[in-house]
Task: inverse folding
């Protein structure tokens, strides 16, 4: 039977030993996040994920969601009760603003809980995950009245939230949306149009759903500059907070999907629905990007989370499955064959997964910490750096972690052999579920274009040059440490390749934009490899200081050395490919494909 155990020990290592969150106790929210409190939250979060959510993962996959004739949607058995536990136990409130009823703890801690929930049941975790994104967008762009009306109940999870962007005729190119908004005398708007692929657009988990909807006000400019954002509740909300009549928004159908069956992915029909403008007219994308960026970081976390649960079950299977004898002679003399974990190629798949997962977790939490510094630090220079990093790294977290997360899930399935291709072990569900992460919230190709087309050049390249300087400082401070030499040399080489690729893009991307487009995915992967090399170097430094006190640290060093020797060399291939430019990709005539 498949299982999931939250990697609490690894999370504690990152929080306490590497990032040293206790050193930020002068910042708002961090003073309450003492090591003991963090450990307690992680332990309880792990129990909730493994005991309440994981048993429903297969149920959700097999049952899916059902739309009734009245346009209501039933989620899988057990989901409503699990959601009630989630909301009542305050998991949604960890990092929310105390003025909205939240606990005000650092977002990085909530990130760890989100990882656990997504590993245990990705389809379920999407419901509160999107609500959190909608809440943050409303807090960033909404009026005081809107914040007070919707904020507290969205923060607690009593009400859900969604983001409504895509339409049948447009996905990435939101400038093509047709949903229209007609102003009314009372200051509201009537919205008419259809949105597709709306996760959690209708469900039976919450009393109300607060939709954030992109639409075009009559007479607005064409393209992206004419888009506004509206808040459209499923049920109208009175001045006293009580729910009123049903709004003219409904679920027109459920998408039949490859995975995440437990999440209701809806076609949403707006038939003159009442909504209110969020922020300024024609500036909707500015606010919606708050939600989209949070969602992109969450999607990267999904890639990591599915890799983690797939890896755990693959490691269990490898220790138990008997097949052939070791190439160097029998290891299990009392058994008819050896467990497959003795075979080098099985070890390759497991170590690829393990080295990626642990590096990716550190990268995700390190990035989340910069998000906290951006919002909580009084130091303007530190806030500037944190903001630069959040912009620069978001596409890398989203795309690199989901690309490698899919590979990890595929390796876990491959390791299972024929059993993996059946539903018995549950591995094939992780492959199906994780596959969407490479597509939604901006396909990974779009993330790569965003990285090379916008993020590198922003503020004269300030963010990427700051990142390079930080790595150089770390190398300079540690290059005399002989025990750390393999990590320093690997990081130095990868950083040099990334800098070389960056220079090539600056020299060749502007002269021919197709050069930038052709190089973008390889550049993003080169960036991801370098970022994880930096994460591994930081973890190795701490593990070296603590080795001998706990086998955990020795294992960490073994895994880190594997990353440097077996995965990091991919950086050279990505650099070589990106330097070939656009010609190999664009030479073939379109009608010759």
Result:
């Amino acid at each position: 039977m498949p299982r999931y155990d939250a990697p609490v020990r690894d999370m504690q290592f990152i929080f306490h030993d590497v990032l040293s969150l206790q050193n930020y106790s002068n910042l708002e929210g961090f003073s309450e996040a003492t090591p003991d409190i963090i450990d307690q939250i992680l332990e309880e979060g792990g129990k909730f994920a493994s005991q309440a959510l994981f048993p429903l993962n297969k149920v959700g996959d097999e049952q899916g969601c059902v739309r009734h004739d009245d346009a209501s949607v039933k989620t899988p058995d057990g989901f409503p009760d699990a959601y009630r536990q989630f909301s009542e136990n305050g998991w949604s409130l960890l990092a929310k603003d105390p003025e909205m009823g939240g606990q005000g703890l650092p977002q990085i801690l909530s990130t760890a809980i989100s990882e656990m929930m997504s590993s245990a049941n990705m389809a379920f975790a999407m419901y509160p995950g999107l609500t959190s994104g909608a809440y943050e967008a409303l807090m960033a762009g909404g009026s005081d009245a809107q914040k007070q009306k919707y904020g507290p109940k969205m923060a607690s999870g009593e009400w859900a939230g969604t983001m409504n962007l895509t339409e049948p005729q447009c996905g990435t190119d939101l400038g093509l949306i047709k949903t229209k908004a007609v102003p009314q005398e009372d200051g509201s708007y009537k919205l008419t149009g259809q949105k597709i692929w709306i996760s959690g657009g209708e469900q039976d988990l919450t009393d109300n759903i607060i939709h954030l909807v992109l639409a075009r006000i009559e007479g607005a400019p064409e393209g992206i500059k004419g888009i506004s954002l509206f808040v459209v509740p499923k049920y109208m909300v009175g001045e006293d907070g009580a729910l009123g009549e049903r709004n003219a928004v409904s679920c027109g159908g459920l998408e039949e999907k490859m995975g995440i069956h437990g999440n209701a992915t809806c076609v949403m029909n707006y038939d003159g629905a009442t909504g209110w403008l969020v922020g300024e007219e024609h500036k909707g994308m500015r606010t919606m990007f708050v939600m989209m960026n949070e969602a992109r970081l969450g999607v990267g976390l999904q890639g990591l989370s599915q890799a983690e649960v797939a890896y755990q079950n693959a490691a269990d299977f490898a220790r138990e499955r008997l097949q052939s004898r070791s190439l160097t002679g029998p290891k299990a003399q009392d058994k008819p064959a050896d467990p497959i974990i003795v075979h080098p190629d099985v070890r390759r798949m497991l170590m690829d997964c393990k080295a990626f997962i642990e590096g990716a977790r550190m990268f995700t939490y390190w990035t989340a910490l910069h998000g906290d510094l951006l919002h909580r630090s009084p130091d303007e220079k530190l806030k500037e750096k944190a903001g630069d990093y959040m912009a620069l790294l978001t596409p890398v977290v989203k795309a690199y972690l989901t690309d490698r997360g899919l590979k990890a899930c595929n390796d876990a399935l491959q390791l299972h052999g024929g059993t993996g291709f059946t539903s018995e072990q549950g591995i094939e569900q992780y492959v199906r579920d994780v596959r969407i992460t490479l597509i939604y919230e901006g396909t990974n190709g779009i993330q790569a274009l965003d990285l090379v087309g916008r993020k590198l050049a922003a503020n004269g390249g300030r963010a990427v040059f700051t990142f390079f300087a930080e790595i150089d400082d770390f190398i300079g401070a540690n290059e005399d440490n002989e025990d750390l030499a393999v990590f320093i040399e690997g990081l130095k080489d990868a950083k040099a390749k990334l800098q070389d690729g960056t220079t090539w893009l600056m020299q060749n991307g502007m002269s021919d934009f197709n050069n930038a487009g052709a190089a973008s995915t390889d550049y993003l992967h080169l960036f991801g490899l370098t970022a994880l090399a930096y994460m591994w170097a930081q973890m190795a430094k701490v593990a070296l200081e603590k080795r001998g006190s706990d086998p955990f640290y020795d294992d960490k060093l073994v895994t880190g050395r594997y990353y440097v020797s077996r995965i990091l060399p991919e950086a050279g291939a990505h650099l070589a490919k990106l330097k070939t430019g656009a010609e190999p990709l664009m030479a073939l005539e379109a009608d010759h494909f």
Summary: The first strand starts at residue 66 and ends at 67. The chain has a mean pLDDT of 96. The chain is about 55% helix and 10% strand. Residues 284-320 form the longest helix (37 residues).
